[in-house]
Write a structure and sequence with these properties.
Blueprint: H1 10-18, E1 32-33, H2 37-47, H3 55-62, E2 63-64, H4 81-91, E3 93-94, E4 110-111, H5 122-134, H6 138-155, H7 175-186, H8 189-193, H9 195-205, E5 218-219, E6 222-224, E7 230-232, H10 246-256, H11 260-273, E8 296-297, H12 299-318, H13 322-343, E9 344-345, E10 350-351, E11 354-355, E12 360-361, H14 371-374, H15 380-394, E13 395-396, E14 399-400, E15 415-416, H16 418-430, H17 434-455, E16 462-463, H18 483-495
Length: 500
């Protein structure tokens, strides 16, 4: 069998990752093989038991390190932050690349999140595009939309990122929002043009829905609820360690004492959520080993799919296909009813996720619970209650914390993330809560600018509780960027007329 990717190198891949030949797990899958992978593996099998064999030397001899991007870029902290972001768009631009690597080549240029990356990420891109719109880089927005459309046509969905080892999972489905934003610039014809890809995106998330029955109520990403409503969860086609986090996944599976395949699936599903990782996915407090992502119906995912159903209905309307349009408006209405039934938590006065295995609403207060406001699903009363809980439990000095839990996981307190600040602020605005929205925006903008002046960087995430710290902890060193931080900051500074 021909070996197509580095992560398929069997024992060689396993040993390199477990022995930490590289400081992080992502480096080796992204290396460039100097020779055909089959030949490298044959050579490894021949040499690995020789007394003189050195794994490190073997890897160096047969692989080149991934390309290092923008390593000579230096920030001029004296320039206004908007001007800095304008420069960064060029630093973060990647052009189509056909080298033999783990990249899935894309037809058009694209923006990556941060300096170390060569690949695009799915849900990051919507928030990056918000800033591109402010910068009037409409051609790049078009490129990004066309790249995602290309991936949907080629693979059947938008993977986590354009790397071969991300196949099997997607990320929060923001494609419809990207298309709607492009429509703002180019008119209603955009909806009709991208209708085939919107339909394919929907079919990916709803795959296997026809096979659901009373004996099998959960297949792939679709769950049939006791009342017959269809809701969705995060999933991954694979139940093996993630190549880019191989050692960590194996260690957690071992520590958990559970079936490793189950743990791997939950980890991969959490990676699809974009919230990797958070106590939101844990069954027992702060115990990472209790991760049970695929048992959970996430409120934010289902709000995104509600919007996709609405967008499809609208697109079919413009295509003069009234029957198909009516079908999708009906599907959206049913999903809205189900979100209200299963995700509005009276006890918490907030929207929460639903554990379908236990048949209970989870109690975690997280910013995911603000998505029903962003998409106009909440009633006025629910929005008022949710905003009061947000104000008391999640609003901090630098913006909104992701959850109420402080666990050491990056998608928990004290970290705040740009995309979620935007969802919260726009959600509050939807319901006329302009004072609270403005206060959150002001705190977030102030923190972003403060850290920029101190470090010359815009961070992936921020510590919103102790704003004297320069950033929240991360899985890799600070990057020049960060795409979604740049995009949201530019958009909020435009909305609130902030000039620096």
């Amino acid at each position: 069998m021909q070996i197509e990717a580095i992560y398929e190198l069997g024992d060689l891949f396993k040993e390199v990752q477990l022995q930490q030949v590289f400081p992080d797990g992502k480096t080796f899958p992204d290396c460039l093989p100097k020779y055909p992978l089959d030949k490298i593996y044959e050579k490894y099998l021949h040499e690995k038991n020789l007394p003189s064999f050195s794994l490190k030397a073997f890897v160096k001899e047969n692989f080149s390190l991934p390309h290092v991007y923008a390593s000579n870029y230096k920030t001029d902290v004296t320039e206004p932050i908007q001007k800095h972001i304008e420069h960064l768009w060029d630093v973060l631009t990647r052009v189509p690349d056909n080298e033999k690597s783990s990249l899935i080549p894309l037809p058009n240029p694209y923006i990556v999140p941060g300096g170390r990356f060569g690949e695009i990420y799915y849900w990051d891109s919507y928030f990056t595009i918000l800033g591109l719109q402010v910068s009037r880089r409409i051609e790049m927005i078009q490129n990004m939309a066309d790249n995602f459309s290309y991936l949907i046509d080629k693979i059947g969905y938008v993977p986590n990122g354009n790397r071969v080892y991300f196949k099997g999972r997607s990320q929060p489905p923001f494609y419809a929002l990207i298309i709607q934003l492009l429509r703002e610039e180019k008119g209603n014809d955009v909806l009709v043009k991208y209708l085939p890809q919107l339909e394919k995106e929907y079919n990916f998330w709803m795959k296997s829905r026809e096979a659901l029955n009373e004996h099998n109520n959960a297949i792939d990403r679709v769950i049939c609820m006791p009342d017959g409503a269809l809701l969705n969860r995060y999933w991954d086609e694979h139940d093996t360690p993630r190549p880019e986090a191989y050692k960590e996944d194996i260690e957690l599976a071992h520590q958990s004492g559970k079936n490793p395949c189950e743990i791997y699936r939950h980890l991969r599903a959490a990676a699809e959520s974009g919230w990797d990782f958070s106590t939101r996915w844990f069954k027992d407090g702060n115990s990472f080993a209790s991760i049970h992502t695929t048992d959970i119906i996430p409120v934010d995912l289902n709000c995104l799919l509600y919007f996709l159903e609405q967008t499809l209905a609208e697109a079919y309307k413009f295509a003069n296909k009234k029957q198909e349009s009516a079908v999708y408006y009906s599907l959206a209405a049913k999903r809205k009813t189900a979100i209200q039934k299963y995700c509005w938590n009276d006890g918490q006065s907030f929207y929460t996720d639903y554990d379908y295995k236990e048949g209970i609403k989870k109690d975690n207060i997280t910013l995911a619970g603000m998505f029903p406001l962003f998409f106009g699903i909440a009633t006025v009363g629910q929005a008022e209650k949710a905003s009061a809980v947000l104000h008391v439990q999640l609003l901090k000095q630098g913006g909104c914390a992701t959850t109420t839990e402080t666990s050491g996981q990056q998608w928990d307190s004290p970290n705040g993330w740009a995309p979620l600040q935007y969802i919260v602020i726009k959600g509050l605005e939807q319901y006329g809560m302009f004072s609270l929205a403005a206060e959150i925006a002001k705190r977030w903008i102030k923190l972003n600018i403060k850290v920029y002046k101190a470090t010359g960087k815009l961070m992936e995430k921020y510590n919103v509780v102790d704003t004297h710290l320069l950033a929240g902890g991360g899985e890799y060193p600070s990057q020049d960027g960060f795409g979604w931080t740049n995009g949201v900051l530019l958009k909020l500074m435009q909305i609130y007329d902030v000039k620096v």
